[in-house]
Specification:
- The protein is flat and about 40 Å long.
- It has a two-stranded parallel ribbon.
- The protein has 93 residues and is mostly helical.
- It has one domain: von Willebrand factor, type A domain (Rossmann fold, 3-Layer(aba) Sandwich), CATH 3.40.50.410.
Length: 93
């Protein structure tokens, strides 16, 4: 039976635990927070290290465009097959 978080703190703990499991399986984790409700500590717990390369936060959805180049550069240079999986890494879309 799936576990359903009953409060925001529990949801954050579960999210970080799932991120840890994903990293243990070789998955590179990026975290993008929108708004003040999610703390840098939670984002950094989700993302790979160092946070400066894998963790990002903006105040509003409209600000996502401001970090697009930084995020796409980080994704394309991350270990693994990201450069092959994302068309923008190969000069596409």
């Amino acid at each position: 039976m799936p576990r359903v978080p009953t409060d925001l703190n529990e949801a954050r703990r579960l999210t970080i635990a799932e991120s840890d499991a994903a990293r243990a399986n070789g998955i590179t984790m990026f975290a993008i927070g929108i708004g003040p409700e999610i703390t840098p500590q939670v984002l950094n717990g989700i993302a790979n290290q160092p946070p400066s390369q894998y963790s990002f936060q903006v105040d509003q959805f409209e600000e996502l465009e401001n970090i697009l180049n930084t995020v796409s550069t980080a994704a394309c240079s991350s270990p693994g097959e990201a450069g092959q999986l994302f068309p923008f890494c190969m000069g596409g879309v």
